[in-house]
Amino acid sequence: MLIDATMSRQNFHHVVAALDARVPGGRLDQALNEYHLERCTEAERINHWRCADLTARLADQQGDPALLARGFQALEQQRRLFPGLSPIPGDILDRVNQYQRYLCLHSELGDYRLRIGAEESSLQLFRRPGFESYDGQALALLYSTCRLLERGSPLRIRRVTLRVHHDERDRRDLEALLGVPVSSGEEQDGVVFSNVHLLQPSATAGSLDALGQRERQLRRMQPGLGWSDSVRGLLPTVPTVVGLPGKPLALCASLLAVSERTLQRRVEAEGQDFRSLLSDSRRQLALTLMPWRDLTTEQLAVRLGYSQTAQFYRAFRDWFGESPGRKRVAMYG
After folding, report:
1. Could you tell me the pTM of the whole model?
2. Deepest in the core among 31, 90, 210, 244, taking most CB within 10 A?
């Protein structure tokens, strides 16, 4: 049991709104009182374990394991699912990175991890200790992920994978709910999509406002979020930006609404260094993208923000001690 796991007040009220759409009047208020979760609480952080347990109990009472996901579906139909959330600029990879942070950063339920394969990739949900059995909340998170990834995007989700096994009738019901094919009894919960649209044209200067607003919103939702964490979240996106002068430091500072020197000082106060964060980000992104065979070395260099392929080759040898071609063969054959 994670008694100190918390969620933001904003997210808590979002969950309550979803339950309101599915639970008959009176029952929800009674359950909230029993779990000491007031509907209009003034607390900035709400006990997430209690909220998850409440959701599971209501789902059991209603005889609907997908209760919360259906509630989110009702909010989506009313255009109240993450209201005001505009599409992320940039390529599909940027959207996946930013949305997984939006969905999971302020939650103790689980972490998303991106797995890129030769032809298709997946965003896999790993539940944190204490939340392994909360299948209804995991399904609701997957539902929200599908809807967010589809917003303003050519991305086409191939299927959703579920750890829990479902019979044919339940599986068809879940497919109707999620709007995509479902395979159950899988090793991991996740969303699988094709690599065809993985990299789209880069973001332009005029499309960055939403990205900066999203990151600043995340900082408000998670007061303990470090400046280094924000930089790590932005760096995979910054290299794709075209039409803007300046280097990654200047772009990150602009998106976070601080000066370059202020951002450097705050990152250094956390025991980090911007140059090292940038190198680590590029190194990890290179490893993430290498399984995708259709991505050439030249395209990979551009995606990581190198204006010259030779610069990328030198950096790659510093990271791994060998060329990109040899590394790819050694790792994937």
Report:
1. 0.75
2. 90
